[in-house]
Protein 1
Amino acid sequence: MDVDAFVASRSPQWVRLGQLSRRARRPRRMTGPEIDELVQLYQRAATDLSTVRSATPDPALIGRLSRLVADARSSVTGPHGGAWVNAQHFVTVRFPGQLHRLWRWWVSVGVVFIAVSLAMGFWIATHRHVQDSLAPPDAVKALVGHDFKSYYSDHPAHDFAFHVWVNNAWVAALSLVSGVFLGIPTVYLMLQNAANAGVDGGYMAAAGHTGEFFGLLLPHGTLELTALFISAGVGLKLGWTVVDPGPRRRTDALAEEGRAAGAVAIGLVGVLAISGILEGFVTPSPLPTWARLAIGIGVWCAFMAYIVVLGGRAVRAGETGDVSLDLRAQTAPVAA
């Protein structure tokens, strides 16, 4: 195909389409024939874009037509549906799609975290000299006899729920954002939290309170820890993008992954709010252990189904977690 001849013959239509797209931002100013012309030119431009993509590798021309078709599509299909529609799209498509797309990263974090915690707990529970070297006997006695359980019930439920929500959101944000430093701070934070969980569990197990430990941890901890695993996994993906941006320029790749990570950070605020409610109201409640576990694990299973079903559907539809095309900065093509 003669690209120059093709562009010369189609340019007047593309210019006219751009004019009509801008006029369509105020539909009352458009006449019926102009609307029909807009739809017809949009269809032709979409066909031209498909032709150009298959016939020429010219990135400048493809970028120009892509933006033109995207603007025209927005004009033809109408404006965005407002805050409610955007929020609905975020909850049902963008957030779960990003979680599903990066599941290997955060599942790997979870596996390592649990392995470190269990190994640390087993080591402490089975070695008396390790127990004695880590904390004085009075502190251990207070932990297993009162402090671990009372931590969840010493304060009013609503105050405690808000406190743990803010604290967990801060830890999640820190592990996610710090991932850009090659993931090193993220790994440190996760290992530190895994070791702390293992120490508490080891002392509780050594005192014969293993059931109490898991009975108080799991009702909220399944969802809470999963949210922290996700934040760490996304942070590590950011760090890896710095190392290996793939075919994209490093700045472009980091910008795309950063915007997608921002979507995860916003979504995790809601997830951690739910885990905070569980920790403040369900964990210290007088319900039997099996009921508290059923509630916590049931909420966690619902969250996993949300990722698998809605997230899988979004990924198959091409969702990347990034903002929509019309909200991204326009970039000029460059040579590889």
Note: Residues 325-336 have pLDDT under 50 and may be disordered.
Protein 2
Amino acid sequence: MSLFDVLADLEGNDDLHLGRLLVLLKAFSGRDGSDTVEGLTKLAKLDFLLRYPVFLERALPKRGANPASAHVQEHERKSVESAMVRFRYGPWDFRYRRFLNLLVARGLATVTTERRTIHIGLTAPGHTVADRLSQDDANQDVLRRAKLLKRYLDLSATKLMKFIYDTFPEIGTLRLGAEITHEH
């Protein structure tokens, strides 16, 4: 199996994405575990920064944080995954609705609607799984970065979207399907 095949398999592995989202939701769940992420757009923008830590590193100074706190590894700077593809709504993977449906179907997340905004939270079993994932050494970078997102980028969906487009103007000018590189 080639490296390309391995990477394609990883990208297609829903559990990898679901685990990352559980850790992210856990970081945003508050002390008592009842807080939610307001809106699919906010979740997608936060996950963009979590999934592509080179972009998080670039964003942190704009929010008064040390970029080194993202702990971006050298292999993350050069990997195929460090480039993001522009989807219809910017750095947004079209699979988020499916990912949420899978989390809800597995009893790990809740999705409720208040007015026109969905609220995404964790169930008790979702918290348990997120805790186990957060304790795994392999997920420490994801956990650390999710906490950074909570601390420095817990903005409304609209403000977060504006922040991302202001911080990464190249995202809005690319053709659909074009690669968004992390070099600036």
Note: The mean pLDDT is 81.
Protein 3
Amino acid sequence: MSERAPRACAILLAAGSSSRMQGSVDDKILHNIAGKPVWRHSFDAFETADCIDSFVIVHRDAAQKEAIV
């Protein structure tokens, strides 16, 4: 029997209020860096991990959810 790598769920916390950004951006999770939103950089990093088989993205409100999904 071959050994299978342990599987895991990645939880991406994207529900912050951006208050520490002191108004420099409307929503730091949706802010673009290098052509894509910040949340996508994190998602892509998890997606390349061999042991991640599911994702949960925690969003702040309906507007943020619509932008992420």
Note: Strands lie at 8-14, 32-33, 36-37, 52-59.
